[in-house]
Write a structure and sequence with these properties.
By secondary structure, the protein is of the alpha+beta class. It contains nine helices and 17 strands. The strands form three sheets. The chain has a seven-stranded antiparallel β-sheet. A seven-stranded antiparallel β-sheet has the order 11-17-16-15-14-13-12, with helices on both faces. The longest helix is centred in the C-terminal third of the chain and has 26 residues.
Length: 402
């Protein structure tokens, strides 16, 4: 059986509104398939444009085995490239942030301008055409201060998400952010188990006691209000402030603004703001949380005082890297307007709790006694949506390559 036929058989065996067949969480073939069929075909959030403030600034990162580079050109334009030299394929820039007037391959010193064009290649002869050997581009869209990339040759439509995201995120002016902190967590669990956990709060009341202080852990799907008077009052205040809040979604994205627990204006240990230099003063700083999520890999929350972005990248069939980034207003001063340990505390605790839950889930899925179980469509509606999306995109890929 070919790997593609194996994947097709696994997908066919999936029961509606149930978790996935065992092999899709455990097998090396599933890992290779997911990179090609899911991560390569999807729009992914690369970060915020504030992370690359000046010409020559770059961000290098990996999507599975694939190195990617985002760089700000001399003209101020952000561009994305495959992070591989057009000579013999060496990586140009190691993962992380950097700044350089040109991009120089460490192997044979081929040198590229910041727009990706080849500037110099020694000892290649008079007939060598530099214009034919620029860096290979990656699709990049910058919307409302956030950067999104797609490795597909023909990316999925983006404009509807871009327009909606701009409307919801615009009032917070993400262009005025700065990166305050980052964190990397290595989880011994399949990326789909990590994301299924991230798409529900069924486990939150007992799994995240600290998060439950400010976060409405008992709501379902897009934090539906169920005619809760406190939430209805919040929605009315958002209407008065001109802040969109209605939950909306597309094939691979969701956006909503929702009320936090009574008395809370930030997602923090006590519900109090973590930064005194706010992103917005609308409604007295009580704007709940703007949540956006992109399948396959991320969710984010933006309150009036900070932004947290959670992103997961598959490393192996049972290993996932979870990246967290915290952003505050660019004029906020560490130690004065915010304390870094306090800014990170709640999400570090929450992520560690989720790591334990996901790894425990992975160990159980490996059991010969594992059988796909039914989702709670009240508490796990977004998990069912995620697995439905995964299976649909995977089946489309199989059909296109069969």
């Amino acid at each position: 059986m070919t790997d593609l036929a194996w994947a097709a058989a696994q997908l066919k065996a999936r029961q509606p509104d149930h978790s996935l067949p065992q092999g899709l969480y455990t097998d090396q073939r599933a890992f290779a398939f997911d990179l090609e069929a899911i991560y390569r075909q999807s729009w992914l959030m690369a970060g915020m444009e504030c992370e690359l403030p000046d010409p020559g600034c770059y961000l290098a990162f990996s999507i599975g085995d694939w190195p990617v580079l985002v760089v700000r050109g001399k003209d101020g334009t952000l561009r994305a490239f495959h992070n591989t030299c057009r000579h013999r394929g060496s990586i140009l820039c190691q993962n992380g942030y950097g700044s350089a007037p040109k991009l120089v391959c460490p192997y044979h010193r081929w040198t590229y301008d910041l727009d990706g064009s080849l500037f110099a290649a020694g000892r290649m002869g008079e007939q060598f055409d530099k214009s034919a050997h620029g860096l290979s581009p990656v699709a990049l869209r910058v919307v409302a201060g956030a950067m999104f990339i797609c490795l597909a040759a023909d990316p999925a439509p983006f404009d509807e998400f871009g327009e909606r995201f701009s409307a919801y995120a615009g009032p917070l002016d993400f262009s005025q952010l700065k990166l305050a902190a980052t964190d990397l967590l290595v989880e011994q669990a399949n990326w789909k188990l990590v994301m299924e956990n991230a798409r529900e709060c069924y486990h939150c009341p007992t799994g995240h006691p600290e998060l439950s202080q400010s976060f409405p852990v008992h709501m379902s799907r897009h934090f539906d209000a169920f005619r809760n008077p406190q939430v209805e009052a919040f929605n009315a205040s958002m209407d008065a402030a001109g802040l969109p809040h209605t939950a909306i979604e597309g094939p691979w994205w969701q956006i909503a603004r929702f009320a936090l627990n009574p008395g809370s204006t930030s997602i923090s240990m006590d519900g109090e703001p973590l930064c005194t230099r706010p992103l917005t003063r609308a409604n007295g700083g009580d704007v709940g949380s703007l949540r956006w999520a992109i399948d396959p890999h991320m969710f984010a929350h933006a309150t009036a005082d900070y932004v947290i972005v959670f992103s997961c990248m598959p490393v192996g069939p049972q290993e996932t890297h979870v990246f967290s980034r915290w952003y505050v207003h660019k004029d906020a001063v560490e130690g004065v307007d915010y304390q870094l340990p306090a800014l990170k505390e709640l999400w570090l605790k929450t992520n560690m709790q989720d790591k334990e839950l996901a790894e425990n889930n992975q160990r159980g899925v490996l059991s010969p006694g594992y059988r796909p179980g039914p989702y709670s469509l009240e508490a796990e509606a977004l998990v069912a949506r995620f697995t439905d999306w995964y299976c649909s995109l995977a089946q489309d890929y199989v059909a296109a390559h069969d």
